[in-house]
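Question (not urgent): is this output format expected?
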Amino acid sequence: MSMDIIKQLEASYDEMVSIRRYLHMHPEVSFQETETAKYIQKFYSDLEIPFQANIGGNGVVARVKGAFPGKTVALRADFDALPIQDEKNVSYKSTVPGVMHACGHDGHTAALLILARTIHEFKDQLAGEYVFIHQHAEEYAPGGAKPMIEAGCLEGVDVIFGTHLWSQTPLGTIEYKSGPIMAAADRFSITIQGKGGHGANPHDTKDSIVIASQLVVNLQQLVARRVNPTESAVLSVGSFIADNAFNIIADTVKMTGTVRTFKPDVRDLMENELKRVIEGTCYTADCSYSFLYERGYPPVINHKAQTDYVADIARTVPGVKEVNESELLMIGEDFGYYLEEIPGTFFFTGAMPEGDVFPHHSPMFDFDERAMIVAAKTLGMAAIQFQDK
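Got this back:
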């Protein structure tokens, strides 16, 4: 990758920050990102870079052709926000009540836009074609990746690369992993139907709170006693609702939760065993139930050749200080859908801020904006030098 391109990216840092902060101040939740999509479209329109809008929903796909024949490389950034109140005390705080970019997608978008412009400026020196996938709705299943793929965003693409700014990892660090790196993310809903009554007469009732509480305890045994200890799985109950007066035994309890796995057989096991434990618990208590299990994103499984390639590239990127193998993460990412279709890899770019560090999806979340330049340079070098593969 020409040092001129590197220097141009570095010179565009202030503009990258400006874009990121504008998006941070004007967030939109999954499937409602219409104004954000328009902002992205205008950016490409002003540069006369050809693009397609409304791909699989609010998705935007731009393409830049180099002057010489070569491979087609896709780069992806997501742009949806979360239904979280921004509690940071910063000049670029979200202006939308109850909505904020709490995961770095604003930074992903800013980095990809500036990278796309830079590649466009140097296209006469480049080979191949570059596809810039701006994806909506990563945060909420069924997500935006699958409908964008169905709408043709990967048409003619040979390889895809993506990254996530990661506030838990120091600035200047690239983390990669061949094979599984992020888990399949499923959700479940359970309703326990008991028999409500007066709190003073429990013998006349079927206490749904007691039954549901026992179910929560029973479910924790699935990972501990049904999953092979050499495999990974998570089952978490996220909500437990029984809203009654203090002296009423609840008629109904509603619960929701998530299951995270890496392998198809473990995923099947967890779904089947979850149903079996619910049936058994409710049979013992002589109550009824309803159960819905929804399969979400597949695991993100990186292709070895492309992962090794990006790790090697990252070691040559100016500003990258460390290149480390990532641990397995139980979070979900619909980038897995792209990797089911074509070769590619997804990696993490360290973005730990100075001072207090808050986790992703926290109302205090922020990241070191200098990480955007590291991400743009790594993606850019991976895309351009792939022409020599």
